[in-house]
């Protein structure tokens, strides 16, 4: 790994670490935690009605309330409903202050509701002994704070996604951090571009110094002849593409006429030997056609 790759890797690690420590990851976990807990509420409601197979539909938001829907009808006893929901809310450590409403699917009529406010120790739980008949019901839960219900503005979304206030702040911090990281990255790349020597060609694990006709590798310098350098430049400019033998001979040797049939093969062999420690670059013989420089992308 080159020094520039190491710097980029460290830069990426720092940015990712800043994102997690900003509370973004925690905010995402909170959202998922609420969704899982409310699905557990739905699951327990069905179990209390003797139903262990019906599916609880995805949790959504409607009018600032969490919406729990079911794939089939069920009946419930209010006292069991209160005990079940309160137990899950306590075990999940979400919020023990909330308002629960049960609506009939077709009529949208609220057939049962109650308020649980542990912060003030005042629970409004009516009709605990009245059994509600089997029907299609939707359960709505509004989480409460000491100053009132948690609204869509608090959660960051009014169209169905589960977002907490902490998550909203996390997203703001994420945007700021990404902006700063992006700016730093652009400045770093500009600096790198200014420092790049136009005569240096990256060649896998090597660097090819065209001006001094030498390969740089692991603090070593491997000298090339002018013809070897010309041949390597030609192959590099058409990397991963086959160049015909006649084209190579004409481009490198021109009309000098001092080459014989195997001259090109000899020079290719010399280049291969000088590139032998470069695992990401190799010169391939395309039988009967020519050669190509193969580089890992």
Write the element-wise H/E pattern from the N-terminal end onward: HHEEEHEEEEEHHEEEEHEHHEE
Tell how many strands the DSSP assignment holds. Answer: 15
N-end to C-end Cα span: 15 Å
Radius of gyration over C-alpha positions, nearest whole angstrom: 35 Å
Instruction: Provide the domain count.
Output: 2
Oligomeric description of these chains = single chain
Form type: elongated
Alpha-beta content class: alpha+beta
**Unreliable runs:** 119-123, 146-164
Share of helical residues: 40-55%
Report on this model:
This protein is α+β, with helices and mostly antiparallel strands and 297 residues long. The protein has 2 domains: 3-173, no CATH class; 200-295, Arc Repressor Mutant, subunit A (Orthogonal Bundle), CATH 1.10.10. Helices cover 43% and strands 24% of the residues. The protein contains 8 helices and 15 strands. The chain has helices at 3-21, 24-48, 78-92, 152-155, 165-195, 226-237, 245-253, 263-274; strands spanning 60-62, 65-68, 74-76, 97-104, 110-117, 132-135, 137-145, 148-149, 200-203, 206-209, 214-217, 220-223, 243-244, 281-286, 290-295. Strands 1, 2, 4, 5, 7 and 8 form a 6-stranded antiparallel beta sheet that branches. Strands 9-10-11-12 form a 4-stranded antiparallel beta sheet, with no helix packed on it. The protein has a 3-stranded antiparallel beta sheet with strand order 13-15-14. A hairpin with a 2-residue loop joins strand 7 and strand 8. Helix 1 packs antiparallel against helix 5, helix 2 runs antiparallel to helix 3 (78-92) and helix 6 (226-237) packs across helix 8 (263-274).
């Amino acid at each position: 790994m080159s020094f520039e790759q190491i710097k980029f890797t460290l830069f990426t690690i720092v940015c990712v670490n800043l994102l997690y420590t900003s509370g973004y990851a925690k905010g995402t976990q909170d959202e998922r935690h609420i969704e899982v807990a409310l699905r557990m509420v739905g699951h327990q409601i069905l179990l209390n009605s003797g139903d262990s197979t019906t599916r609880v539909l995805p949790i959504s938001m409607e009018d600032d309330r969490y919406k729990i829907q079911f794939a089939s009808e069920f009946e419930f006893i209010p006292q069991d409903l209160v005990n079940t929901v309160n137990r899950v809310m306590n075990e999940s450590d979400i919020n023990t202050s909330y308002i629960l409403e049960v609506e009939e699917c077709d009529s949208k009529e609220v057939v049962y509701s109650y308020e649980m406010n542990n912060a003030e120790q005042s629970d409004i739980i009516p009709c605990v002994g009245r059994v509600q008949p089997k029907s299609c019901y939707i359960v709505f839960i509004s989480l409460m704070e000491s100053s009132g219900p948690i609204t869509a503005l608090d959660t960051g979304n009014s169209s169905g996604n589960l977002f907490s206030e902490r998550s909203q702040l996390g997203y703001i911090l994420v945007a700021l951090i990404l902006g700063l990281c992006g700016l730093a990255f652009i400045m770093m790349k500009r600096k790198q571009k200014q420092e790049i020597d136009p005569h240096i060609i990256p060649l896998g694990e090597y660097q090819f110094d065209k001006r001094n006709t030498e390969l740089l590798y692991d603090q070593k310098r491997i000298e090339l002849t002018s013809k070897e350098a010309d041949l390597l430049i030609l192959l590099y400019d058409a990397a991963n593409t086959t160049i015909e033998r006649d084209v190579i001979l004409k481009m490198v040797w021109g009309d000098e006429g001092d080459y014989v049939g195997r001259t090109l093969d000899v020079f290719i062999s010399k280049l291969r030997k000088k590139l032998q420690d470069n695992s990401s670059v190799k010169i391939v013989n395309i039988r009967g056609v020519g050669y190509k420089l193969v580089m890992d992308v």
